[in-house]
Each structure stands twice: as structure tokens, then as C-alpha cells.
Amino acid sequence: MLIRMRTSILAIVDSLIVLFSIYVGYFILYPYINVFTSKMLFISVITIQIAHHYFAWKYGLYRKAWSYASTGELNSIFRAVTMTITVVMVVQFVLMHKVSFRALILTWMLHLLLIGGSRLSSRLMRDRGIRQKSTATTRIMIVGAGEAGTMIARHVIQNPQSGMKPVLFVDDNRSKNGLEIYGLKVVSGTKDIPKLVKEYEVEKIVIAIPSLSKQDMVNLTKICIETGVKTQIIPRIEDLMMGKVSVNDMRDVKIEDLLGREEVELDLKAIEEKLTNKTILVTGAGGSIGSEICRQVSRYKPTSIILLGHGENSIYNIDMELRKSIGDYTKIFPVIADIKDRPRIFEVVSKFKPDVIYHAAAYKHVPLMESNPVEAVKNNIFGTKNIAEAADAFDVSYFVMVSTDKAVNPPNIMGATKRFAEMFVQNLAKESKTKFAAVRFGNVLGSRGSVVPLFKEQIKQGGPITVTDPQMTRYFMTIPEASRLVIQAGTLAAEGEVFVLDMGEPVKIVELAKNLIKLSGYTEDEIGIVFTGIRPGEKLFEELLNDDEIQSDQISPKIYVGKSMPISKKEMNGVLERLLDMPVDEMKMTLIDLANRKTFKP
What we know:
The protein is of the alpha/beta class. The protein has three domains: 2-131, no CATH class; 134-253, 3-Layer(aba) Sandwich (Rossmann fold); 268-568, NAD(P)-binding Rossmann-like Domain (Rossmann fold), CATH 3.40.50.720. It is built from 21 helices and 22 strands. The strands form five sheets. The chain has a nine-stranded mixed beta sheet, with helices on both faces. A seven-stranded mixed beta sheet has the order 3-4-2-1-5-6-7, with helices on both faces. Strand 5 (204-207), helix 7 and strand 6 (230-233) form a beta-alpha-beta unit. The longest helix is centred in the first third of the chain and has 33 residues, at 101-133. The chain is elongated. The N and C termini lie far apart (94 Å). The relative contact order is 0.07. InterPro entries: NAD(P)-bd_dom_sf, Polysac_CapD-like, Polysaccharide_Synthase-Rel.
């Protein structure tokens, strides 16, 4: 009923506008004309009324919500009015054999102006009402005056309940400098952001340039967080336009945004061939890397995923998560098992007969393993031996071991056990039908062993942040990227290769700490950084390959294959037979010597 009433009112208003436009148009040019006796005018009035209402209906002028009008609605008005005047011209020519061009052009102008004005007045009233009602207090700077930035500004202006008030645009496009968009000034020069933040009393910065390269985005983000003002990033413009996310999904800058790593393009076809309709087993499935491997693998529709882990809660969590996120096609089997329990591991592999195994279970904490070397040996070496030999015994097609950069020239037991596990897998690959491989990478941001959760907790408690040494550096990548590259490397496994992921440039831990402090909205004076000294087993710098392992060619984007060679099988078996019977100090020295390629005779 309300829609009919609204349409009727618009039709009456339009009828009056049409009459006014054509009579004024004719009167201005022909003031002497008799409006009551002119046949030309009479025919034109009847025609313009009929034509206008027809085209107004055709182009939706009675259906549109004019309080939200934009350029699309203006285009509809233009087409409807133009078609209306065109019909009047045709009717005049057919019936009167002449056309009042000047009068109709003037009528067209008045018609367009008045119809457009009547429609857009509701939009103007709405915008004015929004500004008057606005209680927004947070002053925001929008970096980027392109499509994404203007979308943010329009959304914020139209939704004062967001609590934000845009005060200016900043854009490096000099042709926009000094322009106004939605009443906001555009200032050129992102390098001036710190000065502009103070000048305009900015309380929040929104980065709205999704087309920037990763490195340019890193540089821009660093400029923004240096101001000490809260900084957010909008989603990709494609996701905004397709409705996958909304403008409200702006997120805070994360430490991962400062790595500057470009997203990896995976060989999806090769991965699908290895994983689709296959049975996948993941050890350490409840851990940071293991659980993300499970998430990534589930996208390729395997027949089943076996979640093997020692921790009850972590396996329960990833089990529940996957059941909610994937369809009925893939079956999920949570399995509580310890990789050190050889009979149990063989039982599980025999039962499920997986096509692919991702071995992510390991002890990874360097100082903790220095205090518990026997457990490191049992888990990282003998646990790997159990799952790898089970894979060989039951003809698993592919076996991928998740290794670490700490396996290179290790001064510690954790790195030495991981290198020995690599060598065991390499030796087994020589005589097995299973295709084995190991994948090395550095620290993973956000993982349980990462410094980031520790730093965040220290900041939450008011500081200080503890860093071992000002020169300490590490390689970093994100959990999803590391997991994707592990899966990609698995498609390349052939004969015991040690794949190395491109970790980019190493990052100073102290710089990581400083950035986290700024991202948390504090200064270094407020939180503070304390240097505690290098812990047992730690190195200042990590490596990904020994000098004699380096092979420069990439076999896949961001994946290298090392020329790492294992020790002989005889030598390895001799070590394995005696390892757990050795005194702890001898055990550590033996493994570290082997991992560093020093001479060892069993």
C-alpha cells in the first residue's frame, strides 16, 4: 500500500514538472503563443505526459530508493527524459510536419533539471540529517583516494553509528592534490603522514590501497605505525565488490603485514592429483603447522584425513573445526597416539593405509630440549623412524617430513635430532617405494614456539619485552604460507630430497619487538626492551643450507632443493643401536658432530 501511494505521489509530481517544463519552454521562446489554442503545444503536452510516464516506468524512476541515489540513478533520469523529448519530436514531425527544436531543447533542460532535483533532494535531506545526527568522535585519515578509499569514506559518512569521522584523504597521485571528495580534502604525499596526523588530529589511519605491491604496502604501513596512531587495512577491493566481505571488516595491522612477503602461486593441478580422493595422515595435527596443513589439505577434497596427535585438547579442537568447515565428502578421523609408540603407529598406518603422510610432530623448543635431550632423541629421531618405517612397510605413496633451519650446523640437541631425522628419511628413500622428502623452513609467526605470542603477553602485562641479544636474527614466515609450501614440496618428492623454502630476508628480533610495541599502541618508553643474553643451544643467526648444500635454482616458486647427503646406512644403524645407551653428554656430542658433518666412527 505504501509503495502504491509513493508511486502515485511521484507520478503526480512528475506530471506537474512535465507541464511546467514544456509550458515554460514554449513561453520563453514564444511569449505571444496562445496556450489554449495552439495545436502544436496541445499535441506536445499530451505526448510528453504519456511518454514521460512510460519511460519513467521503464527506467525504474518510480521504484528507486532516491535517498540512496548515485550516478546510476542520474543516468536513468537522463535516459528517461531524453527518450521522452525524442518521442515528442517524432510526434510533432509526423502530425505537424515540423519540429519546435529550440523549445523542446529548453523543455529537455528544464525537464532534466527538475526531475533530477526532485529525486536527489531526498538524498540531500538524508545526508544532511546524517551529518546533524552524527555523534562520530574518532577522526580518521584515509590513505588512498581511489575506488577503495572513496568507498570507505562514503560508507563511514552514511553510517555515523560507526563512530568514525573521516577528515582527509592522503594519496600519492599528485593530480588529485587539493581536490575534494565527499567534502574531504585530498592531500598528496604519504611521506607527510606523520605531519598530517598531528595537523588534523587524526586518531585512526585506514590504509585503502589494496592494489599496492607487498613491499610498498610494508613501507606504507611502517610510516603509519610510526605515528603511534591505530592503523587498519581494508580487505581486497575484489572481495568488497563481490560481497565476500564488507567495509566493516577492516582489520588491525598485524606483525605479518610487515614481513613484505609476496603470496605464493601454487601448482594447484599437481596438488589436486596428489590429494584429491586420497587418504591423508598428519602427525602433530593439533600443532600450529600440523593443524594448518589439515586446513589446507581439506580444500582439495581428500577422501579422509587422519588427525594424529598426542595432545587430547588440540586434536579435539582441530577435529571440531574441520567438521564445521568441510562438507560430508571428506571423513575426519581423530587419533590419539604418540609417535614414540612404535606398535601403535604401525597399527594406525596399517588400519587407514594413507596415501600421503605429513609428519609435523616434533619437539622444537631449543632451550627446553637442551634440558631434556633424551626426550628430544626419542621423539624427533625414533618417533620419525617409527612413522617413516610404517610408511615404507604399508606402501604409503608420499611421506613429507617437516624440518627446520635449526638442522643446519646445529650447536644444540634439537637441531641435531632434526638433522639426524632428515638423514634417516634420506637413507630410507634409497630402498623404499615410498617417495620421501624433508622440508626446511625457519620460524613461523604465531606458532606455539614463536616469540610473537610471548611478546604479546609481555606487552599485555605492561612489559618489558625480553630479547636475548640485540643482534639476534631469524627467518620468519606465516603459518598458512609455510603449510602451503610444505604441501607444494610434497608434490615434488622423489628420492629423499631436502627442500628449502625461500624465507626472504632475516629479521632482527629486536625490530620485531619494537614493531609489536607500536602495533599495540604503546611506545618503547612505556613498555621497554630488556636483553637477557643468549640461551643454551641458541645461535645469533640461522641458516637454511650449509655451503656445500646450496643449489641456486628454484624447482618451484619459493622452493629450493638442497644437495644434502645422508651418512651411510651402516653408520646410521650403528648410531641408532647405541644412541639411547650413551651418556647424555656423549649422545649430544655424537649427534651434533654428525649434524655438522664431522668424522664419526661407530
